[in-house]
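Why does residue order matter? Because the sequence determines the fold. Keep that principle in mind as you read this record.
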Amino acid sequence: MTDHPDSPYTPQELAPQDGVGVPDPFLRLWTPHRMAYIEGENKPTSAEAGSGCPFCRIPSLPDADALIVHRGDAAYAVLNLYPYNPGHLMVVPYRHVADYTELTDAEVRDVADLTRQAMQAIRTVSAAHGFNIGMNQGEIAGAGIAAHLHQHVVPRWAGDMNFMPVIANTKVLPQLLPDTRALLAKNWP
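Structure:
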């Protein structure tokens, strides 16, 4: 530890296990809800379909509880619990399938249609300037849940990347997820 100009303590008076230790100039935004993501809570431990897969389980829940924005014939749109930006949602086929090449023609059409509709709804609600749209195919490519295909639809705005995610590894979201879900569902085309 080093001396901090505003600290009334010297390094010898405080040990690392003494509370928070020596004060520093950083402010902290505590995000304990992210521990579920960090610790892999509810992340499937196998590639099998069923109740162990959140994307298989979500459609059995009421839309508001599951954060489902819209249900299609072969896929559904659901808000991401750990959004990169406000309105970040995913389009997920109902069928438990890992790879895009395994989708049926009907599933491909529904994923594409729901992606287009999601963009329209997000533009209506929040005037997004652009979008990042994509799938991470396989764990090595960054898929958090590699066993069940899902396409991300992430709205973007000019200047939406600020110091918080870069310096503090933190996102500031202006709206609670249930409120975002209700707004998008109401404005779905």
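Residues 14-18 have pLDDT under 50 and may be disordered.
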